[in-house]
Amino acid sequence: MTHSDAPHLVLVDGSGFIFRAFHALPPMTSPDGVPVNAVYGFTNMLARMLREHVGTHLAVIFDAGRHTFRSDIYPQYKAHRPEPPEDLRPQFSLIRDATRAFNVASVELAGWEADDLIASYARAVRKVGGTCTIVSSDKDLMQLIGPGVCMLDPMKQTPISLPEVEKKFGVLPEKVVDVQALMGDPTDNVPGVPGIGPKTASALINEFGTLEAVLAAAPDMKKSKRRDMLIEHADAARISRQLVELACDVPLPVPIADLAVREMDKLTLADWLESMGFRSVLTRLGVGHPSGAHAHRAARAAAHASISGAVAEAPTTTPDQDDLTKATLAAPYGAYETVRTAQDLQKWVSAAQEASVCAVDTETDGLDPLSANMVGLSLATAPGKACYVPLRHEGTLEEPAGEQLSVQAALDIIRPLLTDDTTLKVFQNAKFDLLVFDHAGLDYTTITAVDDTMLMSYAQSAGLHGQGMDELSTRHLGHTPISYDTVTGTGRNRIPFAQVPVKRATDYAAEDADVTLRLWHVLRPTLRTNKALALYEQIERPLSPVLAGMEKAGIAVDRAELGHLSKDFETRMAVMEKEIHAAAGRDFNVASPRQLGEILFDEMGLPGGKRGKAGAWGTDSSVLQDLADQGHELPEKVLAWRQLAKLKSTYTDALLRQTTTEDRVHTSFQMAITTTGRLSSNDPNLQNIPIRTEEGSRIRQTFIAPKGKKLISADYSQIELRLLAAVANIPALREAFELKQDIHARTASEVFGVPLEGMDSLTRRRAKAINFGIIYGISAFGLARQLGIPAGEARSYIDAYFARYPEIRDYMERMREEARAQGYVLTPFGRRCYVPGIQEKSAVRRQYAERQAINAPLQGGAADIIKRAMVRLPHALAEGGFSARMLLQVHDELLFEADEAEAEAVAQLVKTVMESAADLSVPLVVETGIGNNWAEAH
Length: 938
Hints:
4 domains, 938 residues, 38 helices, alpha/beta, Taq DNA Polymerase, Chain T, domain 4, Nucleotidyltransferase, domain 5, six-stranded mixed sheet, Rossmann fold, single chain, 50% helix
């Protein structure tokens, strides 16, 4: 046989996929009323595989029955698995019908599992020089991967090869059975050795080589519980190995030659698809009957095909919405299960793993995930199928909490699910739940295969609407979830979630998981259609665990210095209050806007006052700034007092309250708030510390490096101007950046006709104000106020600027037009930034929206770039062998903590990674600094 004649055998794990499809998809029925959700999932998978992954030979492998040789070895094998659900049983034969309709061979053999048949066919095809692709995500089949044999995950459409196996099991495929024998498998009731998890099992096999070698070495190991377990359960481990090792010598029911790919009979397939009511599949494959004898059958199918329940028409529903999304919307809410025992929770975990995708949610006794206790958790395995696991409910005499698992017991059972690479876990705001699990004792870095519906939505609709679960549910599912206030009460009557009766908590918490999974079904496909898939998968999703690590790490603060600074601010404010009272002519409460307004506009008669709806004078910062610009002393002094008061309350006092026992402050990063993709932070908000004031610098001095450490600041230089030069394609500015010239001096030279040599600081300052002002759509009036010049002169500067750089005016007009036409603008990396006010009738609001449209691609592009760098940096630091960790992100700056001895090398590595985060037509430049505190490093 020549190489070109060698068969490529594709084996579909039909039995494995049936259960995954059934648990993953909402209820659906055929025109005859038979359940078909698993059939529908199998049909779509098979159709896609035939289109995208065709070999020379093909078969779908099924289980013939539950009793196999493994049941004789160990009667408890899979014994705890319940009988198939009533609405799944009729689908087994229909799935075999589907295989025949596609003219694909199906194979099964009594007494053997599908996995054994797959192993035997894979071995046989390799013997004749062929190759084999196994379409499955079943971890048990990973032991077969090797030369000529690979796997393909049918749900994610991603290959599974040696690196994926090693990542999951910590060993290469030939050692997988030894690792599985030690760790066991609760899903199949394989006993293993109690207390031996994946990491320990792989470490032992890597150290000793084989299971038998581990068991032989156990008596000589250091005395420990692990040693005792290995000795006591050695026989169980050996039995476990027999259970997990696949048989490769099963007699082949159908010769490989008879599995050659066959031509599809379109009429037969069309008949079958019509009988099932799978109209979307029929259309997608283009196999429908054009006219004639079968037309009435298609019409009947269209008229009578039904999906269980009434379809809720969400705002985003369209006539083209496919069957699956309709079923997702239609599945009924409620009737959720309360899980109180380990056995019942294990059933849900097994169902989730069989479905290959599930939603997970946690309930806590607080809003800070670093300190909140887990009160319960919920799982959803399909739309309408969800449960709640109470863990810390207190109950009352009238409504006792009843039996509950301990947190540790629940984590032990759910850990294999959360750490399973082959099962996708869907969260709404995953970062919060990851940290909740971490605080409860399950290391968040071990939780793999995570999707986040909040970030899915944000990646394609930033600025269009909020990203909270309730709002997304109303918008996409047409369903208003039970509110937290309904469950816990409001105001003084609010009770902690731990005191909520378990039945009511189940209705609320399980629905959260159910809604999250439904949102995933709706939002995941739109990532591709809205061209947001790369943004989500390469930036937003991987950033979530990075930020979780930063929040957990926190940053050290100098409590003593904070106390001194707070006292100093208080003393200075007292002096300023006396000066304010003197300017006002009497004492009053400076913090009272009402009293201040009465003095400014009633007593002093200053111009420009406006009363609010309640009748009080407005005294916000814009009002006071206008009066100060006119030369009035009192509003100027009040503005200075307010700035100091804000710094004291927001930072020096708040930081003292928020400091943990380790003298570290842990901010929380908000990922889905801004229109442009920028991160924001709160508790404390570190984005608003003044950069160029003495007070701001003193606050930054209180953020310190612990003994033996250094802080490293890495800041993108003029990144938004660089993006402007790139996206507006301005040759002069691009050249200036390429030549590393002073961009503001170059601008001043070109706009005002002044030589670069000997440039005076005033002219450069004016050019700098225009450069940065243009990005934010500055007006002549705004520039005039900033530079202290007449508005006419400011207008002449802006006109001269546009005359020299007409590309900027073109760019600005292009962004306005895009926003008006689409409702959004795009960053250079494809992020949609919606501008809702672009069609406003009010000129003031419309012009504000236009300025947003101009700035969003630049600010959003900068956000995309620093996020790309943040995703890459933890891996780069680990690869470099550094223990340094990233602590903060503020605007265009990242802050790191590193060992003093490696600080210089870390700074260089960070600079390299950040500067290579994007490929633009102008160079990215990062400035780094090293110091004992933030101000010194910056």
